[in-house]
Specification:
This protein is mostly helical. It is built from 6 helices and 2 strands. Strand 1 and strand 2 form a beta hairpin.
């Protein structure tokens, strides 16, 4: 079993969060990024990744950085290197294809890299008994 890496000390404005709190926070971020909104009458869900990605140039950069934060937190939680590699591949694919005008925006809505990465993290935690 892998242990969580230390990420902050309990002082000032920061406090040590439990593993469950951190995972819940990451789940919330993934939801906001990938599935927070619904196209009325269609059931198609999208998030800020799809919206911010519409901004030429900077939009996909910003959403990729936010997605990398989730990967960093997974590393802080002790996720193994092979899992981090898969998560990074999901983010890289999302960032590269997402940068293509129009088609990339459709891909962002359908690929949902953050939700995929959270599913990978949850599966690892359940499989390895990490709580």
């Amino acid at each position: 079993m892998t242990t969580a890496r230390a990420h902050s000390t309990e002082s000032g404005f920061t406090r040590q969060r439990s593993r469950a709190e951190r995972v819940r926070r990451l789940e919330s971020i993934a939801t906001v990024m990938d599935t927070a909104f619904v196209v009325p009458g269609t059931g198609i869900r999208f998030g800020f990744d799809g919206l911010v990605g519409l901004v030429p140039g900077i939009g996909d950069f910003v959403t990729t950085v936010l997605s990398l934060y989730l990967v960093h937190e997974a590393w802080q939680l002790g996720a193994p290197k092979h899992l981090i590699g898969r998560m990074l591949a999901n983010v890289a694919l999302d960032g590269a294809i997402g940068a293509v005008p129009v088609a990339g925006d459709v891909f962002d809505v359908l690929w949902r890299a953050n939700k995929r990465n959270m599913r990978l993290l949850r599966e690892w935690m359940e499989r390895d008994g990490v709580s």
